[in-house]
Specification:
- The strands form 3 sheets. Strands 3-4-8-7 form a 4-stranded antiparallel beta sheet. It has a two-stranded antiparallel ribbon with strand order 1-2. A two-stranded antiparallel ribbon has the order 5-6.
- The chain is an alpha+beta fold.
- The chain contains 8 helices and 8 strands, in the order ββααβαααβββαβαβα.
- Strand 1 and strand 2 (10-12) form a beta hairpin.
- Helix 2 (52-62) crosses helix 6 (151-168).
Length: 226
């Protein structure tokens, strides 16, 4: 029988997790690394449909992320409506055009050349789904403002888990952060306690998709063992 503990007057349940032998553990972490090492940012996204239930499950996976005081300060807006996607693309491209032609430094533009990005963002209409992630700065309960904690950290972790879940499903995405992003609040009619955090187009890779030939840093370049 499951033993339940009360701590500070709240119910706590026994924790369980599947453990693996040292050999199985090495195999599992290596297999998962190989899976994730194949992940790429893809801009050539097919318009091929993706089932709404798949998108729902991806968002539920993201929502398993840890958050400050378990406040879960995120809202995932899933958009399939072509008119809304078109409005988002138009507004995003206006901001991006201004950035590429005036806001970005020459060094920044040079750093972007290997990735071959431009201010044009056709994937915002081509992708069958867009997920716009909003961070909830505070909660509104009967006009009582209650701050959330570690909001950026919590929402950032949830976004990382969402991207991982998307790749695990055999789908592709890219992290799009037009700056500023206030137009997303207006187009999606979000309340004053939310701020746009990240825009993710989601779908299948186009059959003729290409990605830059980039190399990731080696373990020695990203880690220090003590």
């Amino acid at each position: 029988m499951e033993k339940i503990k009360e701590i500070n007057g709240f119910k706590h349940l026994p924790f369980s997790i599947t453990e693996y032998s040292p050999k199985e553990l090495k195999e599992k972490v290596n297999d998962f690394f190989q899976l994730m090492n194949a992940r790429r940012t893809v801009r050539d996204i097919s318009s091929r449909p993706v089932n709404r239930e798949v998108i729902s499950q991806l968002m539920m996976t993201a929502s398993t992320a840890p958050s400050g005081a378990h406040k879960q300060p995120w809202v995932f807006c899933a958009i399939a409506d072509p008119k809304v996607k078109k409005s988002i693309r138009k507004a995003a491209e206006a901001e991006e055009k201004e950035s590429y032609e005036g806001r970005m430094s020459q060094r920044w533009l040079e750093d972007l050349k290997p990735i071959a990005t431009t201010w044009e963002k056709p994937f915002l209409e081509n992708a069958p789904w867009l997920i716009v992630v909003f961070k909830k700065i505070y909660e509104l309960n009967d006009d009582d403002k209650q701050n959330n904690y570690y909001v950026n950290e919590s929402v950032g972790i949830a976004c990382g888990m969402l991207i991982t879940a998307i790749h695990n499903a055999g789908l592709v995405t890219l992290t799009h952060t037009p700056s500023p992003m206030n137009f997303l609040t207006k187009i999606l009619d979000r309340p004053k306690n939310e701020r746009p955090f990240l825009l993710l187009p989601i779908g299948y890779a186009s059959k003729d998709a290409y990605v830059p030939d980039l190399k990731r840093k080696e373990l020695a370049d990203i880690s220090i063992f003590y």
